[in-house]
Amino acid sequence: MLKTKKALLFGTSGQAEVMAYLLAHDSPYEVSAFTCSVAFRDRDEIYGKPLVDFETIEKRFPVSEYEMHIAVGYNDGNKLRARFYQEAKEKGYTLLTYISTRATNYAKSIGDNCFIFEDNTIQPFVTIGNNVILWSGNHIGHHSTVEDNVFISSHVVVSGHCRIGANSFIGVNSTLRDGITIGKENVLGAGCLIVKDTPPGTTWIGTKASEYVKKP
Q: What is the CATH number that goes with domain 5-95?
């Protein structure tokens, strides 16, 4: 794909590396550099690109020429990603959104600093807020709303007319029945089946597999 835009990635984890790979192979963005807080910068280069201090990055990479993406996961209930998202906006950067060309997207709207991986199905009339990550293979049902700073991992089924509250995390293979609201700052572990509204700030644990006991 022809590269017509320049990107900066905040983050040094494996997640940042994956995001850099996808931007390089499936977007008009050329990743020019990585950035992180000066207290955590322990090298000058990462993944073959310069690693620069976030605190002063605009002096070297001006906001008029580069867009940024905050490539941070669900640390501290997505609050770390939300913090640096806000700080990057205050510096004046445009926060880029990536939507895989291998996703099916009929969303009504998708905010900035979102990262939507391959094989997501986003049905009509869906609203996705800012700073949202949809990892691979999810189904987001029609007329649903995903609020800001949400992380949805892989193979999650969100039925129609649902609302997922801000700063929530939805674990792999979880299922939400239609018409329910997941409260803000919820954590749904892997394999949860949620059939009613959940209060804010709650954690839900899916059923674990039983230990196999060999028959005598």
A: 3.40.50.20
**pLDDT tens for residues 104-137?**
999 999 999 999 999 999 999 999 999 999 999 9
Closest CA to 52 of 72, 31, 33: 33
Domain topology for 97-204: UDP N-Acetylglucosamine Acyltransferase; domain 1 (2.160.10)
By the 8 A CB rule, do 9 and 69 touch? Answer: yes
Domain boundaries, the chain: 5-95, 97-204
Buried b / exposed e across 109-126, counting CB within 10 Å, b at 16+?
A: ebbbbbbbbebbebbebb
Q: What's the CA gap between 61 and 197, in Å, rounded?
A: 45
